[in-house]
């Protein structure tokens, strides 16, 4: 089974995403901010990362840049999940190494469409 790290400061978002991803047979772990996520990735790299944009301590974009610069950090597929609809910020995330993005709020079909290719 594939592993997914959910990185979001909202416990509600983590809970909802966890349920949906586990229904898709992912092994799921969680982090509340980018620093916690980076620490987890240095111990065990997930296959896929569900990543929020705005978080305390280390933002999603800061995490992504750190991840992609880390040995083996080029391997996980990263899906940015954000309320940002600004095409410039989405382009910035892609340039930093995001593989895809989806907008909040999301539903099961949207999440499945984004994560199914990684199963």
TrEMBL record:
Keywords: Phosphoprotein. GO terms for biological process: phosphorelay signal transduction system. Gene3D superfamilies: 3.40.50.2300. Residues 3-119 form the Response regulatory domain. SUPFAM superfamilies: CheY-like. Transmembrane segments: none annotated. The modification 4-aspartylphosphate is found at residue 52. CDD domains: REC_hyHK_CKI1_RcsC-like. The keyword Transmembrane does not apply. It comes from the Bacteria. InterPro entries: CheY-like_superfamily, Sig_transdc_resp-reg_receiver, ST_Response_Regulator. This is Two-component system, chemotaxis family, response regulator CheY. The lineage of its organism: Bacteria, Pseudomonadati, Pseudomonadota, Alphaproteobacteria, Hyphomicrobiales.
């Amino acid at each position: 089974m594939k592993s997914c790290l959910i990185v979001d400061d909202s416990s509600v978002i983590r809970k909802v995403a966890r349920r949906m991803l586990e229904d898709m047979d992912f092994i799921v772990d969680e982090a509340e901010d980018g620093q916690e996520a980076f620490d987890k990735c240095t111990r065990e790299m997930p296959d896929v990362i569900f990543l929020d944009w705005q978080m305390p301590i280390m933002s999603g974009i800061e995490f992504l840049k750190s991840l992609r610069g880390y040995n083996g950090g080029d391997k996980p597929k990263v899906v940015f999940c954000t309320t940002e609809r600004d095409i410039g910020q989405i382009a910035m995330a892609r340039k930093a190494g995001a593989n895809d993005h989806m907008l909040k709020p999301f539903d099961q079909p949207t999440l499945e469409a984004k994560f199914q290719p990684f199963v």
